[in-house]
Amino acid sequence: MTKKHILSILVDNEPGVLSRIAGLFSGRGYNIESLCVAETNEPLVSRITMVTKGDTAILEQIKKQVNKIINVIKVADLTDQDFVERELVLLKVSAKPENRAEILRITDIFRGQIVDVGQEHFTINITGDAEKITAILTLLKPFGIREIARTGSIAMFRENKPKS
Amino acid sequence: MSKLTGAQILLRMLKEEGVDTIFGYPGGVVLDIYDELARTDLKHILVRHEQGAVHATDGYARATGKVGVCLVTSGPGATNTVTGIATANMDSIPIVVITGQVPTKLIGNDAFQEVDIVGITRPCTKHNYLVKDVKNLAKTIKEAFHIARSGRPGPVLIDLPKDISIAKTSFKLPDDIELRSYNPTYVPNRKQLQKVVDLIKKAKKPLIFSGGGVNLSRAHQELTELAQKNKIPVTSTLMGLGGFSGMDPLWLGMLGMHGTYRANMSVSECDLMIAVGVRFDDRVTGKTDEFAPYAKIVQIDIDPTSIQKNIQVQVPVVGDCKISLELLNQMIAQEDMGKFKPEHKQWLDRIDNWRKTTPLAYDQKDVIKPQYVIEKLFELTKGEAIITTEVGQNQMWAAQYYHFTEPGRFISSGGLGTMGFGLPAAVGAQVGAPDKIVVDIAGDGSIQMNIQEMATAVQYNLPVKVVILNNGFLGMVRQWQQLFYNRCYSSTKFQHTPDFVKLAEAYGAVGLRATKPEEVEKVLKEGLACNKAVIMDFVVEPEECVYPMVPAGAPISKMLLV
Predict the structure, then answer these.
(1) Which of B122, B181, B304 sits opposite A72 (nearest CB)?
(2) Going along B118-256, which residue ranges are E strands?
(3) Domain end point (choices A77, A108, A135)
């Protein structure tokens, strides 16, 4: 069964590493839904958070193939684990005077912020997991979404909960 | 501390890695390295084309088991290596390819003979490097050799800009390599091996299926012990030929698209398959759903990506073939095998019956049959030659009719199927094994893809023997056209082919020809006795096909036999 997976990949922070991973995915016909890369607290290591799709067998191959790349230190599949996921989205929405109050209310409910405002638009900053982002996009769509910039998901395991 | 140039560090590090031979071709940005090379005792084999350099390096590595090294210039020199690198990558051959690069300041400026070879070869190397600081050069070279030869071996490329080969730095031997992101598993999990032992105990129709990994880790003795002590018959992939003796009564021949009837039938009926160092390539499995339908499958491989990729297996064992088989043999020796008796008489009788009813066969009449040439070659060399092949019918007949007894004897482009591989690989193998008879089994098509390396063979007095099975066609493609495209021989007939005897002579080699069956033995004897490079041109049956044949995508039990 095809399913969305979030992979957290630790790699050497070196030129060309992203290209090795992206090339592996295109070369083997794997799917990348989103990709997010930045340095970690250790300057020689970067974390790549990748959202990909596939059935169990494909995912197993993906993880093994990624692990096989010499510059990859660790691959963790967060799916089916307890984890926190966040994505940052900037949304430019048409905001006619008669809609402004409603848009502000929705933004508020989703704990977003207006980061730019004009005669005819709001730019809204929203963070959350995939479901939350989908939900606000659905609600704001009728007003007219002019532009979207998304970071793609980043994610982390939750620490083990204390035993009760 | 003494200061050395990048070029000096490179050559020093090659010596440290035990390299004594380099295959290469000079050019602008590697001039400093070549200048330095002239002052060392490293042997340099000047090829005639960079593709030939990589194939020769590859052939050298396969024949000797050592890491092969190749040195070329930037731009076209580098791009010409790509086919050779991809060939080595598909067959997991340890080579280090050093390409020159334009000076670091010019990189990205479309400089003369600049190409992003690191970018181009990323998907077809095990790893690659662009050296941007001479201080990192020594460590990079050490790392490259470590990566090339360890784990599942493969090609590593080092791109070396001209200014780095000139720059000086104080040289210190690098420490041992430790890469936290690269630690291949050599020693397998014993619990997994115990499962294998348990399965062997229960098996009534066991089969060993061995591959290139057995040859690469030189696990042939351990494999032979496993097979002989437990009376388990053995089949192998093309890459696995030589991992088990082709003369052993337990040997079934190669399996797959052009496998023997008994090998393919054994796969289709076995109840336990012990797969060692294989990756279940489509040419082996045919239709995957019907591959080994009654078998529990055990797979031993050092590369986890080879496991559960094409075929779901019940017992995966990640580990080096040699170490794993050694442990497995020990465990079997200590185990109370209960009712298990290493006989499987019914099973072995059944296989023997297939051997009798449906052997590999051809009918030698008035025109020379290519299979006959190879059988004669086997006979005359007593099976002790190193055989390289090109790709196509010549390769399949070589695999079927020459019987290999140890690793490093059969050198062929299995995964990529590179025409033009055989001759340069033979050159490399002969450099690595000067006392062996090295024969390239070729077709009239593929020999022309790297025929220029005859000049290399002659220049270095390498007595490479080329056996051309000359059918005037691109034989394997023609065979497909005959069987699956209504005999529409679109662009597979050569309307013109050079006179290979004269061509050999023009290169300063010896040219011989046989046009009748009764001349085959004489020509082979004369060619093999010759201490120079020689081309033997055998004019063979133009429309002979390789059988058995499993049509692409069919189950391997459904073979075309004639």
Answers:
(1) B181
(2) 127-130, 155-161, 168-170, 206-210, 234-236, 251-254
(3) A77
Dihedrals φ, ψ of B377, to 5°? -60, -40
A-chain residues near B126 (CB < 8 A): 70
- Which residue's structure tokens are 């960079």? B50
Q: Does B122 contact chain A (CB < 8 Å)?
A: yes
pLDDT in tens, B491-549: 999 999 999 999 999 999 999 999 999 999 999 999 999 999 999 999 999 999 999 99
| CA contacts within 13 A on the Cβ side of B267 | 32
Which residue of chain B comes nearest to A59, CA vs CA? B309
- Residues 8-47, chain A: which have Cβ within 8 Å of B? 11-12, 16, 19-20, 23-24, 27
Looking at beta carbons, which residues of chain B come within 8 Å of A22? none
- Residue-wise pLDDT for B427-461, tens only, equals 999 999 999 999 999 999 999 999 999 999 999 99
Instruction: Tell me the C-alpha to C-alpha distance, in Å, between residue A129 and each of A57, A121, B240, B524.
Output: 26, 25, 50, 73
pLDDT tens digits, one per residue of B296-344: 999 999 999 999 999 999 999 999 999 999 999 999 999 877 666 767 8
- For residue A149, the cross-strand partners are A90
Q: How far is B466 from chain A (nearest CA, A)?
A: 37
* Cα B58 to Cα B79: distance, rounded to the nearest angstrom: 17
Tell me the fold of B190-357: Rossmann fold (3.40.50)
Give the domain range for residue A130.
Answer: 85-154
The per-residue pLDDT of chain B, averaged, comes to 96
Q: How many CB atoms sit inside 10 A of residue A32's CB? A: 15
> Does residue A26 sit within a domain?
yes
Q: Do residues B33 and B42 make contact, with C-beta atoms less than 8 angstroms apart? A: no
Q: Rounded to the nearest 5°, which phi and psi values hold at A62?
A: -55, -50
Whether A164 is covered by a domain: the verdict is: no
- d(Cα B386, Cα B411) in Å, to the nearest integer? 7
Nearest Cβ partner of A73 from B122, B181, B303?
B181
Contact with chain A for residue B109, Cβ under 8 A: no
